[in-house]
Amino acid sequence: MSWPVLFLGVTVNVVAVLMSVALVCFARAATNAIGRRPGFAAWLNRAVSAIGSSVMPPKDMPTKCPAQAEPPSLDGGCACGAIRYRMLDLPMFVHCCHCTRCQRETGGPFAHHAMIEFTRFKILQGEPDFVLVPTDSGGKHWVARCPSCRTAMWNEHGTRRAVTRYVRVGTLDTPDALPPQAHIYTRSKQSWLVLAAEIPAYRAYYDAAKAWPEASLARFRLAKAARAAEPGGATRRTAAKSRT
Ligand SMILES: [Zn+2]
Ligand SMILES: [Zn+2]
Asked: Which CATH number fits domain 74-229: 3.40.190.80, 3.40.50.9100, 3.40.50.300, 3.90.1590.10?
């Protein structure tokens, strides 16, 4: 299409819209003027509505974008339903750990952990048992299990006053909502497993100060300060220090 033809087409469209608007305004004025003749006024009103709806946006059409949606609550629980929990925010970070300890603990090729502050996690129902499990680094962590069906739902590393909950993503109601942002301990990854090239992979552990987004590090610092301010004192833990 040549430029003159295109310009002519645009001009004709603009003129048509302007004429329609003018006609609507004129017809509304006429409606007011002849209000004493109900039959004709009703017909004119219908005509005005028909024309108006073709050129005017509906009154209920939103004039601005809706507000940013709140982050979703992520609920999960055990296999029998006795324990239910909620992540009140998206996690600070999600990683898959391919260490041999995680493989043994989970019975799978890796552990899939979503890390969230204790302040943004709550138990909705039930009371888990906390089982003490040794780690490869010589430490220990607490695993929250259902007292009935024994499903493991999250870890608390080093102490029950840990800042971070390591939620086992497979126990969420929407386990595919949290894909990993990193793979760690890939030196012991099962050989048949092929990882996506675009996700950072570390042969051992990562430095959270470099691997985590700054916003997540800030969240962790806030939660750590909140923990330290509680009766019982400070914690020495840093973000994602534990090797799981
Ligand atoms: Zn259960
Ligand atoms: Zn691990």
From this structure: 3.90.1590.10
